[in-house]
Prior knowledge:
single chain; alpha/beta; MetA_family; 302 residues; Rossmann fold; 31% helix; Homoserine O-acetyltransferase; 12-stranded mixed beta sheet; HST_MetA
Amino acid sequence: MPITIPKQLPAGELLKQEKIFVMDEERATSQDIRPLRILVVNLMPQKEKTELQLLRLLGNTPLQVDITFLHTETYVSKNVSKNHLDTFYKTFPQVKNEKFDGMIVTGAPVEQMEFEQVEYWSEMQDILDWAKEHVTSSMHICWGAQAALYHYYGIDKQQLPAKCFGIFDHIVTDPTVNLARGFNDLFPAPHSRHTGVSKEDIEAHDEISILSYSDEVGPFIVLSKDAKNIMITGHLEYDAGTLQEEYDRDSAKGLDIDIPKNYFPNDDATLNPPNTWRSHTHLLFSNWLNYYVYQQTPFEWK
């Protein structure tokens, strides 16, 4: 089944070229079906790239998914046009009286700041509090995961001695959990962050558990016991070339950055990196939409 997106969203044409079933809002309204309503809180600077990455994954399931994009009202990104935001995005006051089956909170380039120093932190707190009663299940990615762990469970992030940057293997702690259905016991995933969360802090909390972790880079998938919140500390949604773009960008700025680990063939930055995590990315999103959203959400919100 298709994802439903605004008719002129630039990502739509790219998705069609990739043979992903996309339906515009006009056609969707003619169908007698109750689609899943997913709110995407897009905090990434290059919003159009993130739109494409997430829509590609949300459109790869048998479920019809209706997407609403949200940007912060208290901070407006400088890397996307005002026209794009005005046309395709809403702000929190515009959706706060609505109910959504699922919500995705992306990463953000603010991880080295204290949460309270982030310009839109108060707004993020309002959104996270609102989601408790207005969203069936939420997926939080990278900084979004750190924000959820801090706001909901009081677990703070920690500065790492060096940037966690590259592709790392992760262990599944319990393959019987629905979110991990179909996962290999060991699977790769990208990370790009300067901060992390403590495995011991998570294990000491009764309301959450670690579903996947890396011996090298720590907790990866953290799941709340009520399945309302899924925290992903890395970036399974990244394209094959995303880490390369980050490496080239920072190298061009003269920053002291190491080559991404386990990424380029033979650690040769002139060679194209393969995507070794794609299958688990699709499994994660389809499992979330099926078991934690579709099978849990009410047919009619009250």
